[in-house]
Amino acid sequence: MVLASGNLGKIREIQAMLENWQIAPQSAFAVPEADETGTTFIENAIIKARQAAHYCQLPSIADDSGLIVDALNGAPGVISARYAGVGASDQANVDKLLATMAAVPEGQRSARFICVMVYLRHADDPFPLIAQGVWEGCILPYCQGENGFGYDPIFWLPEQNCTSAQLPADLKNALSHRGQALRQLVAAIKNQATA
């Protein structure tokens, strides 16, 4: 099975959660990055999964995920990874978000990470398996923590009393939007295989 992602942070997290599965990142097959032209996480995940399955002639898993900030009408949303521009660093995206939210008061900084994961048996699979995870939190006005990637240093988890970037990797995988979606997807794949 091929993992349709070039994001090293996502690859590490997904491979850690699928340690008993034979899975390789699309970079092992020289698959080019897909053009994420969808307007939703579901569309982009399907685009990425189809491209990887097509190039590799293998079943594929893809995810599309991002940060939804209520005060910004859902931005950065599907462009979370390129919020500060195509090829922007994680820090540039975080800096832009913090600047954009500078005047937003503490009680109005609610946000959530969304992850949509898709499994395709082959490139022309008309019935992709789709799973979704949601992780609620809020946006801090400054960075805190060294773990994770992306917006993790500013994503505050009230129930944990820390940011996502301060969680150990195993706890983050247990709680996160990506962990939720991946567990749902694995269950759906297993159900499909026994049907």
**Gyration radius from CA atoms, angstroms:** 17 Å
Q: What does the average pLDDT come to?
A: 93
In total, how many beta strands?
A: 7
Classify the fold: give the CATH topology: Maf protein
Q: Into which percentage range does the β-strand content fall?
A: 15-25%
Q: Please provide the ordered H/E string of secondary-structure elements.
A: EHEHEHEEEEHH
Please give the share of residues in helix: 25-40%
Instruction: Compute the number of helices.
Output: 5
How far the N terminus sits from the C terminus, by CA atoms, comes to 19 Å
How many domains is the backbone divided into? 1
Low-confidence stretches: none
CATH class label: Alpha Beta
CATH architecture: Alpha-Beta Complex
Shape, principal axes of CA atoms: globular
Strand order of the largest sheet: 2-1-3-4-5-6-7
The computed structural class is: alpha/beta
Query: How is the main sheet built?
Result: 7 strands, mixed
Tell me what you see in this structure.
With 195 residues, this protein is an alpha/beta fold. The chain has one domain (2-194): Maf protein (Alpha-Beta Complex). Helix content is 32%, strand content 21%. The chain has a seven-stranded mixed beta sheet with strand order 2-1-3-4-5-6-7. A hairpin with an 8-residue loop joins strand 4 and strand 5. Helix 4 packs across helix 5. The longest helix has 18 residues, at 177-194. It is globular. The mean pLDDT is 93.
Question: Quick summary of this structure?
Answer:
With 195 residues, the protein is α/β, with parallel strands linked by helices. It is 32% helix and 21% strand.
